[in-house]
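sry for the spam today, last one i promise. struct tokens for design, 316 residues
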């Protein structure tokens, strides 16, 4: 493997920290661009880049002699975020990074996007060839960011790879997992025994390993889905989290139609869709093009995530 200089934007974030650590352990020289300077495991140099969505010469200067840029910065998926903030973080910032990379002639740009661009649930397997169907502001901002970056790098010397991870797991992850941990840790009965679905996930360290492979590979597909080859049902997901918490929970077999109506009445129809629907990725392309397959089992990383959660049961 050839040692490369890699600039990681968003290295203080959940995915960015794992990417920085993994690239360094593989022998690459890792430069990190942060809004505010802080220690990042694996970084050999830190650049205080400020707001990536604002024009600045700092980022371009940091890309001198850089072989690859990984843009892992962005605003994560959470409830109640202003669409303008999502656009600034996931479209404008990605555009500024791409513009700087093209201007400096950086050979390779890796953009960390999201499989949320395919929606929250799908009845059939989806792959890189599937048509995106974003159904919330977050997913639309990620897809818009992809489009903006593609336009910027088109015709330049900079090669683009877009990584679309399914829900990323690990201690400190965001999304629905922390909510489930709190729910499982409480004494509330769980009426989810009748949910029979298949959803794809991936451990954060496997996302980082895939990006390491992409950077080291002379030619990678422009778009890659990141997911473990084995999906998991919501019921088994809950059981794995419960094991991590050291609890045994019985899931009551309440009909899903009743739960769906209750969720709609509570204004949580979209959350229910992502909780109960299937969302299974076809990951064959990463294997055939790069020889990569995520190796950390989903039950294992769920147990570890729950075991390392900050949840404290106050009901006893």
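last one done:
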């Amino acid at each position: 493997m050839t040692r490369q200089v890699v600039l990681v934007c968003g290295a203080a974030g959940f995915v960015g920290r794992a990417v920085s650590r993994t690239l360094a352990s593989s022998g690459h020289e890792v430069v990190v661009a942060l809004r505010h300077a802080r220690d990042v495991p694996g970084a050999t140099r830190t650049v205080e880049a400020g707001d990536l969505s604002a024009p600045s010469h700092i980022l371009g200067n940091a890309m001198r002699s850089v072989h690859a840029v990984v843009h892992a910065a962005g605003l994560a998926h959470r409830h109640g975020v202003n669409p303008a903030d999502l656009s600034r973080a996931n479209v404008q910032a990605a555009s500024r990074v791409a513009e700087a990379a093209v201007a400096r002639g950086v050979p390779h740009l890796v953009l960390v996007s999201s499989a949320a661009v395919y929606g929250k649930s799908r009845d059939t397997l989806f792959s890189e060839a599937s048509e995106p169907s974003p159904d919330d502001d977050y997913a639309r901002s990620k897809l818009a960011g992809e489009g903006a970056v593609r336009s910027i790098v088109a015709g330049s010397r900079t090669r683009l790879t877009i990584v679309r991870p399914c829900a990323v797991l690990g201690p400190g992850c965001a999304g629905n997992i922390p909510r489930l941990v709190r729910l499982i840790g409480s004494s509330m009965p769980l009426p989810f025994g009748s949910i029979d679905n298949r959803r794809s996930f991936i451990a954060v360290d496997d996302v980082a390993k895939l990006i390491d492979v992409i950077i080291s590979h002379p030619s990678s597909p422009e778009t890659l889905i990141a997911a473990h080859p084995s999906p998991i049902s919501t019921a088994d997901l809950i059981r794995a989290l419960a094991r991590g918490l050291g609890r045994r929970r019985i899931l009551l077999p309440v009909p899903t139609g009743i739960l769906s109506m209750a969720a709609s009445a509570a204004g949580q129809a979209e959350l229910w869709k992502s909780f109960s629907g299937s969302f299974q990725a076809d990951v064959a392309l990463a294997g055939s093009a790069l020889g990569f397959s995520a190796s950390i089992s989903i039950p294992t990383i769920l147990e570890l995530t729950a075991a390392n959660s900050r949840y404290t049961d106050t009901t006893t």
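Confidence is low (pLDDT under 50) at residues 311-316. ok im logging off now
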